[in-house]
């Protein structure tokens, strides 16, 4: 295995289930070349939850779709890197072999439980589909297993629900069914793309608890994609922060929240509404926001992509892209001034 | 569901009643009756003789009385006599119905069997060469009048096979019968196949962009299986509606096609009857066609609810 210095994950010990190296997914659009995922590397271990965080359009969802090779092609294309699952580079598999991986070794939960389920197929059949495909079960056996899966995700009256159609279930129920579907073949890696974004707050917590519980029970590695740092804090062990298609910071979750290295991460954290602020217990004034907008991926600045929005940016930030390097043990960031700022904050 | 059906049936009766009034009044508004036409073509007019015929047919009575007489007869199963042949209407219409029914059914099968797969292929291979070929084909299908296409088909058959299937009441075999009907059915069905194809394509394109298609792919199903099991099952719903509507519209296309292919079906017969102001034939035939259209509509709606679980006809 080639060790790349640009990856914090390379330093990780055994137990790595999925190892992503230098992943590049580009979109060839009329507006020009769009580097949706640019040299992203990470690894997840068995039973671990890795969160990928960032604003809309930062490339986190495309990263996820790249892993199971469902990037819409054209215009998108995976142009480089390696995605190793138990020693096999998924990017080199032919389509047929890749189909054997999808839903079997790696499966995915999508954001919108309303639209992600086929409206004219029963829940039971949709859960059973992966079982029929990968484990060669008969329809009846797959349905029986689907009922067990519904029970596993704590859906009451699973026999009845298996015969229901998606529109007969509530949003939270549907997302539970999605989870049941994704876990049906007991995958090694579960990718959850904004699994709670479309749900009510109370349901969000239930769904997160469920994912964490099942992960413990089944030992699945989870890649959690979200823009919600609250969700990250509750579930993830490690966090990757992405900005404009690139990783800007990576750290164990607790350390990241205690003291972010990258100004973008600080900005994200400052823009979470906090109850104590709203109630006025803490003198903080308005909710912080990151000024400016995410740059168009077709028109990235030459230096640090975040520099135009960064209050700490100096000339160097606008001129050169900072290297992604290990600033502290286990803490990686791409920022020219992180040492300075980190030190200043400590002083 | 039961209450829904009852309501639908009541609505059907109402529709048919309205239809009967419309066709009855329209026929009487059109200038001339059978007596006028017969005497005009004979070239001589004996007013007394003409008045006798008009009275005999009951055409001198008030329009409301004539209508009641017709409807009253309908309820007793008495459809009256053709003015022209003086045979019972039922005997004139009944033998022609299967001919047109076979034609229409074949045309529908043709349009579905050609239209749906081509539409799917066109959508799955969007913007490929094949897609453009299919789209041009469908555009031409929509623009070619079916009588002209019918003539082309006839000419081509003569040119390449030296023969055209001539209509007989008693074809030698099922194969001969199929051959006999399939040429005119193709001429009519080509246009509706173009319509079905275009709708299938756009419906399929919309469905293929849906999230659940991606979900299905993420489970490891092949593209073909996803297109068929998840894509087409959703995309076919609006297509069924169009096929149902086409079933009614086909009759219009059949009028000319039956003429071109010299097939003694209902559609051509209806036009003939209108020309002679053969009221009993026209009225009863139009009512029969209306009944068929209404029933087909009901079947389509029921089929819709069977295929789309989100649609349930509540009370």
From TrEMBL, chain A:
<dbReference type="InterPro" id="IPR003593">
    <property type="entry name" value="AAA+_ATPase"/>
</dbReference>
<keyword id="KW-1003">Cell membrane</keyword>
<keyword id="KW-0067">ATP-binding</keyword>
<dbReference type="InterPro" id="IPR003439">
    <property type="entry name" value="ABC_transporter-like_ATP-bd"/>
</dbReference>
<dbReference type="GO" id="GO:0055085">
    <property type="term" value="P:transmembrane transport"/>
</dbReference>
<keyword id="KW-0813">Transport</keyword>
<dbReference type="Pfam" id="PF08352">
    <property type="entry name" value="oligo_HPY"/>
</dbReference>
<protein>
    <submittedName>
        <fullName>ABC transporter ATP-binding protein</fullName>
    </submittedName>
</protein>
<feature type="domain" description="ABC transporter">
    <location>
        <begin position="20"/>
        <end position="269"/>
    </location>
</feature>
<dbReference type="InterPro" id="IPR027417">
    <property type="entry name" value="P-loop_NTPase"/>
</dbReference>
<dbReference type="GO" id="GO:0005524">
    <property type="term" value="F:ATP binding"/>
</dbReference>
<dbReference type="GO" id="GO:0005886">
    <property type="term" value="C:plasma membrane"/>
</dbReference>
<comment type="similarity">
    <text>Belongs to the ABC transporter superfamily.</text>
</comment>
<dbReference type="Pfam" id="PF00005">
    <property type="entry name" value="ABC_tran"/>
</dbReference>
<dbReference type="GO" id="GO:0015833">
    <property type="term" value="P:peptide transport"/>
</dbReference>
<keyword id="KW-0547">Nucleotide-binding</keyword>
<dbReference type="InterPro" id="IPR013563">
    <property type="entry name" value="Oligopep_ABC_C"/>
</dbReference>
<dbReference type="InterPro" id="IPR017871">
    <property type="entry name" value="ABC_transporter-like_CS"/>
</dbReference>
<dbReference type="InterPro" id="IPR050388">
    <property type="entry name" value="ABC_Ni/Peptide_Import"/>
</dbReference>
<keyword id="KW-0472">Membrane</keyword>
<dbReference type="GO" id="GO:0016887">
    <property type="term" value="F:ATP hydrolysis activity"/>
</dbReference>
UniProtKB/TrEMBL annotation, chain B:
<keyword id="KW-1133">Transmembrane helix</keyword>
<protein>
    <submittedName>
        <fullName>ABC transporter permease</fullName>
    </submittedName>
</protein>
<dbReference type="Pfam" id="PF19300">
    <property type="entry name" value="BPD_transp_1_N"/>
</dbReference>
<feature type="transmembrane region" description="Helical">
    <location>
        <begin position="136"/>
        <end position="158"/>
    </location>
</feature>
<dbReference type="InterPro" id="IPR000515">
    <property type="entry name" value="MetI-like"/>
</dbReference>
<keyword id="KW-1003">Cell membrane</keyword>
<feature type="transmembrane region" description="Helical">
    <location>
        <begin position="235"/>
        <end position="261"/>
    </location>
</feature>
<dbReference type="GO" id="GO:0071916">
    <property type="term" value="F:dipeptide transmembrane transporter activity"/>
</dbReference>
<dbReference type="InterPro" id="IPR045621">
    <property type="entry name" value="BPD_transp_1_N"/>
</dbReference>
<feature type="domain" description="ABC transmembrane type-1">
    <location>
        <begin position="97"/>
        <end position="304"/>
    </location>
</feature>
<keyword id="KW-0812">Transmembrane</keyword>
<keyword id="KW-0813">Transport</keyword>
<comment type="similarity">
    <text>Belongs to the binding-protein-dependent transport system permease family.</text>
</comment>
<dbReference type="InterPro" id="IPR035906">
    <property type="entry name" value="MetI-like_sf"/>
</dbReference>
<dbReference type="GO" id="GO:0005886">
    <property type="term" value="C:plasma membrane"/>
</dbReference>
<dbReference type="Pfam" id="PF00528">
    <property type="entry name" value="BPD_transp_1"/>
</dbReference>
<feature type="transmembrane region" description="Helical">
    <location>
        <begin position="178"/>
        <end position="199"/>
    </location>
</feature>
<feature type="transmembrane region" description="Helical">
    <location>
        <begin position="9"/>
        <end position="30"/>
    </location>
</feature>
<feature type="transmembrane region" description="Helical">
    <location>
        <begin position="103"/>
        <end position="124"/>
    </location>
</feature>
<feature type="transmembrane region" description="Helical">
    <location>
        <begin position="281"/>
        <end position="304"/>
    </location>
</feature>
<keyword id="KW-0472">Membrane</keyword>
């Amino acid at each position: 295995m080639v060790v790349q210095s640009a990856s914090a994950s390379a330093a990780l010990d055994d137990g790595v289930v999925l190892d992503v190296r230098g992943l590049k997914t580009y979109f060839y659009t009329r507006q020009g070349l769009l580097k949706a995922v640019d040299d992203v590397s990470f690894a997840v271990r068995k039973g671990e939850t890795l969160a990928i965080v960032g604003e809309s359009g930062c490339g986190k969802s495309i990263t996820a779709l790249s892993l199971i090779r469902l990037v819409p092609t054209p215009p998108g294309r995976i142009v480089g890197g390696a995605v190793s699952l138990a020693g096999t580079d998924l990017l080199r598999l032919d389509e047929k072999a890749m189909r054997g991986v999808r839903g079997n070794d790696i499966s995915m939960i999508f954001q919108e439980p309303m639209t992600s389920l086929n409206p004219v197929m029963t829940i039971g059949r949709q859960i059973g589909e992966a079982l029929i495909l990968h484990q060669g079960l008969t329809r009846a056996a797959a349905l029986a297993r689907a009922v067990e899966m519904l029970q596993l995700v704590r859906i009451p009256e699973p026999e009845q629900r298996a015969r229901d159609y998606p529109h007969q279930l509530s949003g939270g129920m549907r997302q539970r069914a999605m989870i049941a579907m994704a876990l049906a073949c007991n995958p090694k890696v579960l990718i959850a793309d904004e699994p709670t974004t479309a749900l009510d707050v109370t349901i969000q917590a239930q769904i997160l608890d469920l994912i964490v519980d099942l992960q413990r029970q089944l030992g699945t590695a989870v890649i959690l994609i979200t823009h919600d740092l609250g969700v990250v804090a509750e579930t993830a062990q490690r966090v990757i922060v992405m900005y404009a298609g690139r990783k800007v910071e990576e750290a164990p979750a607790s350390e990241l929240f205690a003291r972010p290295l990258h100004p973008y991460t600080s900005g994200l954290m400052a823009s979470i509404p906090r109850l104590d602020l709203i109630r006025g217990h803490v003198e903080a004034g308005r909710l912080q926001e990151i000024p400016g907008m995410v740059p168009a991926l077709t028109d990235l600045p030459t230096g640090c992509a975040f520099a135009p929005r960064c209050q700490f940016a100096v000339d160097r930030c606008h001129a050169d892209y900072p290297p992604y390097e290990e600033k502290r043990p286990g803490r990686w960031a791409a920022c020219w001034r992180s040492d300075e700022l980190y030190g200043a904050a400590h002083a | 569901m039961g209450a829904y059906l009852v309501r639908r049936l009541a609505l059907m009766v109402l529709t048919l009643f309205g239809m009967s009034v419309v066709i009855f009044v329209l026929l009487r508004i059109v200038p001339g009756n059978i007596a006028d036409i017969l005497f005009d073509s004979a070239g001589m007019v004996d007013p007394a003789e003409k008045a006798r015929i008009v009275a005999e047919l009951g055409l001198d009575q008030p329009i409301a009385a004539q209508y009641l007489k017709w409807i009253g007869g309908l309820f007793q199963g008495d459809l009256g006599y053709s003015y022209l042949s003086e045979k019972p209407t039922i005997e004139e219409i009944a033998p022609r119905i299967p001919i047109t029914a076979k034609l229409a059914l074949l045309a529908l099968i043709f349009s579905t069997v050609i239209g749906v797969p081509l539409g799917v292929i066109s959508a799955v291979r969007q913007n490929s060469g094949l897609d453009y070929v299919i789209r041009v084909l469908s555009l031409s299908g929509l623009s070619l009048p079916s009588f002209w296409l019918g003539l082309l088909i006839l000419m081509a058959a003569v040119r390449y096979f030296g023969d055209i299937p001539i209509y007989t009441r008693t074809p030698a075999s099922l194969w001969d019968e199929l051959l006999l009907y399939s040429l005119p059915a193709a001429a009519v069905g080509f246009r509706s196949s173009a319509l079905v194809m275009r709708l299938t394509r756009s419906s399929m394109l919309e469905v293929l962009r849906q999230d659940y298609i991606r979900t299905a792919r993420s489970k490891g199903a092949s593209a073909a299986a996803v297109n068929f099991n998840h894509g087409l099952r959703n995309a076919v719903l609006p297509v069924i509606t169009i096929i149902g509507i086409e079933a009614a519209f086909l009759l219009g296309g059949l009028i000319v096609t039956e003429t071109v292919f010299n097939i003694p079906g209902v559609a051509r017969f209806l036009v003939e009857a209108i020309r002679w102001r053969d009221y009993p034939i026209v009225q009863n035939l139009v009512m029969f066609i209306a009944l068929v259209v209404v029933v087909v509509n009901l079947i389509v709606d029921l089929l819709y609810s069977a295929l789309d679980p989100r649609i349930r006809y509540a009370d």
